[in-house]
Every structure is written in structure tokens, then in C-alpha cells.
Design brief:
The protein has about 140 residues and is of the alpha+beta class. Helix content is about 30%, strand content about 30%. The chain has a five-stranded mixed sheet with strand order 1-2-5-4-3. It has a two-stranded antiparallel sheet with strand order 6-7. About 30% of the residues are buried.
Length: about 140
């Protein structure tokens, strides 16, 4: 499923398109990233020229979004799953790393019908950037 995260609070905004799917899995692949005993993350081939995001950024932000939603996801699972990130599309001038988190969170909310809010974001005019209120794992 493709999920598009868009925020526009000034003359420029952020757009991140995330193509991800849930794959039931009995045993993960060696390269899969373990989120917990039931949930893994797999990131496909990432072409930096197309996505304008590094593999490490995608791993960091998608993993964090899943970790923050894990208690809400678990009741929907009947088997172990692997979230497979097939593609991330973001414009180099109109995106930030945090947008990847918001796209992953939005994907999870939509896919599972979760009763969760999207991350609050505001535009800091003095700094000319968007500020995301993403909790750290310690704040959860």
C-alpha cells in the first residue's frame, strides 16, 4: 500500500510517499531488522538519487514509528510479520527525515485502522523549518 504524507503550513511543505506492505513471515531473512519477537522490518533496494533518503534514515524513522505503535499493532496480528519498505519517494528540497516517520505512522494508522493521531508539526518561521513533536522511545 502506498501512503502519502503531506504537510503544508507555509509557502513550502513536505511530501513523503511510502510504499510498504505487511508480509506474514514464519522465519525472517538474515537482513531483516528485528523490532520485537513478532515484528520485523525489511528495506528494499533504495536508490538515493530517486528517494533522496539514505537507507539508515529509512531504517531509523520507520523502525521508530513501528516501535511507537507496537502495542496498537499486536492485537491485529495473527502471525509474525515483516514490514517491507519497497520504496520511499521524497523531494530533496521539500522533505525532512522526520517526514519518513510521519509517513510510516500514517501508513500504520491507515492499514490497521488505528485510533492514533498523526504527529503534531509546526513551522518555525525564524529557523525556516518544520518542527515535529516526535516522542523518543524513553518518553513512551
Amino acid at each position: 500500500m502506498i501512503y502519502k504524507y503531506i504537510v503544508l503550513k507555509t509557502s513550502w511543505g513536505i511530501v513523503v510517499s511510502l510504499d510498504m506492505e505487511e508480509i506474514p513471515t514464519i522465519s525472517p531473512l538474515p537482513a531483516d531488522i528485528k523490532i520485537n519477537e513478532q515484528i520485523y522490518l525489511r528495506i528494499g533496494e533504495i536508490n538515493k538519487e530517486e528517494t533522496h533518503a539514505r537507507w539508515e534514515e529509512i531504517e531509523k524513522w520507520v523502525s521508530l514509528a513501528i516501535k511507537h505503535a507496537v502495542d496498537d499493532i499486536i492485537p491485529h496480528l495473527t502471525t509474525n510479520v515483516c514490514f517491507y519498505v519497497k520504496h520511499v519517494d521524497m523531494h530533496i528540497l521539500h522533505s525532512t527525515e522526520e517526514g519518513i516517520y510521519c509517513a510510516a505512522r500514517g501508513w500504520l494508522i491507515k492499514y490497521y485502522g488505528l485510533n492514533m493521531e498523526q504527529v503534531p508539526v509546526h513551522y518555525d518561521k525564524a529557523a525556516n523549518k518544520y518542527i515535529f513533536d516526535i516522542p523518543t522511545t524513553e518518553q513512551l
